[in-house]
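Design a sequence for this backbone.
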């Protein structure tokens, strides 16, 4: 249905794509995988008219096409859900679903018509938002699903999903995978990008692996490719030894803790007491709205409890987000567009910006060359692909996420508050980030981590606190700390039949 050949794209001195072809067939899910910065998003942006290629051709049903922009591509049946969320946060759900103009009824915009069209698509993905809710008030996962609904409402023939599940909890990701399969069975051609390789292989008919702008494994039948060979194709010689992700005994624990005493945050936490010692990695789990994320917000000074006390390792209570930063709290969120990076600034400024905040007061600013050098070291440590002088917004999604982490590590924090810290990060870099987090814990830092990816909690945490209705209902550690165990504890009581 869609055939692309010889696509090339250069950004200044960077070669993002170097002669890549791909064929999308009706009724098939074609997976596209590769390391951060391999060129996946560039490829799909070209196919969907978002970016102009420097070379190559695209044919749709045998006829050459050249899209001027995404809107034109959409009119010809090619829809994309891009990696960075593109919701209009100040508009309502309905307004977001019909960006290219609302359906008219007797010449007027008809809300009723919009609701009628949207309903089946929303429910197919398990969404039930208030149609007039402001989209910015919805959780990240719902915003991600909403974008997919928006693409489906265009009734595309080719649907491109660039990391559609990176912010989704497991159930929603499974539901999306099933939906994707159904759409292909109805005759759509789907191109699916994800770093969750097992998920990809379950849903895909074919897989193409990109490395450094080349298709190193083109259109292989998914059933014939094992996970190991997939990872090797992705990472090439740099493939990490299958490192044991499991808890390594750490040298030092029992450092000064983050402590909650009877903390109540209206509508979110009810008299929660907890203690996370220095050297410990404590997970926070729960369904949406269960309160686990309020713990991070309270530690970061972004909400003030109405009752009870939060104490940081240095004994102080965070009074504001800024105060928490100066008290040594690092907050790394997967919602990086919202609060991760200054996209228009060079990488080095981003990476050193937290330290600036802490140092500005005594007047002595470090020299620029020193900052640049420090940023370079920090970025190399995380293997970020991108020049220190590059605009942060020009990095690939996964590399932006690594840069957010580099920024906080640069500040030498005492507490790490992590919320989906490896969202969109490739398997190699994810293992690397986990290793760094463990090292920091071993140095005596407190690590609190929430993740929509339960495997991440199991890999990383010493114990996981499970929240329901604003309270801790269970603590999982050692052999009880498994993905099914977590899922069960999070859902316990919800699905149980009435006695
Ligand atoms: N607008 C841009 N300006 C400059 N360089 C860019 C731009 N967009 C992408 N690049 C570079 O092109 C390369 C490929 O980026 P791309 O976004 O396609 O990677 P990706 O495979 O999608 O990675 P990820 O898994 O991290 O999303 C990267 O080195 C990136 O820094
Ligand atoms: Mg990408």
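Sequence:
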């Amino acid at each position: 249905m869609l055939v692309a050949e010889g696509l090339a794209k250069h950004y200044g001195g960077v070669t993002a794509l170097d002669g890549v072809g791909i064929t999308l067939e009706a009724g098939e899910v074609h997976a596209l995988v590769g390391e951060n910065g391999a060129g996946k998003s560039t490829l799909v942006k070209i196919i969907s008219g978002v970016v102009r290629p420097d070379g190559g051709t695209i044919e749709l049903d045998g006829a050459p096409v050249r899209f001027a922009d995404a809107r034109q591509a959409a009119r010809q049946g090619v829809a994309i859900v891009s990696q960075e969320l593109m919701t209009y946060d100040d508009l309502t759900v309905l307004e977001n679903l019909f960006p290219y103009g609302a359906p008219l009824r007797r010449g007027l915009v008809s809300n009723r018509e919009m609701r009628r069209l949207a309903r089946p698509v929303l429910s197919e993905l398990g969404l039930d938002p208030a149609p007039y809710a402001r989209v910015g008030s919805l959780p990240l996962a719902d915003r991600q699903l909403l974008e997919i609904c928006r693409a489906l409402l265009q009734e595309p023939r080719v649907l491109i999903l660039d990391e559609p599940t990176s912010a989704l909890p497991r159930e929603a990701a499974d539901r999306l995978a099933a939906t994707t399969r159904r759409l292909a069975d109805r005759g759509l051609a789907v191109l699916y990008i994800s770093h969750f390789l097992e998920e990809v292989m379950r849903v895909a008919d074919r897989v193409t692996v990109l490395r450094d702008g080349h298709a190193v494994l083109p259109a292989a039948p998914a059933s014939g490719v094992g996970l190991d060979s997939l990872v090797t194709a992705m990472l090439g010689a740099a493939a990490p030894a299958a490192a044991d992700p499991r808890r390594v005994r750490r040298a030092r624990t029992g450092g000064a803790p983050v402590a909650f005493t009877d903390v109540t945050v209206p509508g979110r936490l009810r008299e929660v007491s907890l203690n996370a010692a220095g050297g410990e990695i404590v997970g926070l789990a729960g369904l949406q709205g269960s309160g686990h994320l309020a713990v991070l917000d309270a530690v970061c000074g972004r909400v003030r409890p109405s009752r009870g006390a939060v104490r940081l390792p240095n004994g102080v209570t965070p009074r504001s987000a800024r105060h928490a930063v100066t008290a040594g709290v690092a907050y790394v969120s997967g919602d990086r567009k919202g609060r991760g990076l200054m996209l228009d600034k060079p990488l080095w400024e981003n990476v050193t910006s937290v330290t600036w905040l802490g140092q500005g007061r005594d007047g002595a600013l470090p020299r620029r060359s020193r900052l640049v050098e420090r940023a370079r070291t920090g970025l190399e440590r995380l293997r970020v692909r991108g020049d220190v002088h590059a605009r942060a917004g020009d990095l690939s999604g996964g590399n932006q996420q690594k840069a957010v982490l580099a920024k906080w590590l640069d500040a030498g924090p005492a507490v790490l508050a992590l919320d989906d810290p490896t969202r969109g990060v490739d398997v190699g870099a994810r293992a690397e980030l986990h290793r760094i987090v463990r090292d920091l814990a071993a140095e005596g830092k407190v690590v609190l981590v929430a993740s929509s990816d339960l495997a991440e909690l199991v890999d990383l945490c010493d114990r996981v606190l499970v929240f329901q209705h604003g309270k801790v209902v269970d603590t999982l550690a050692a052999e009880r700390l498994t993905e099914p165990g977590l899922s069960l504890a999070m859902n316990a009581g919800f699905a149980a039949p009435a006695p």
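The first strand starts at residue 2 and ends at 11.
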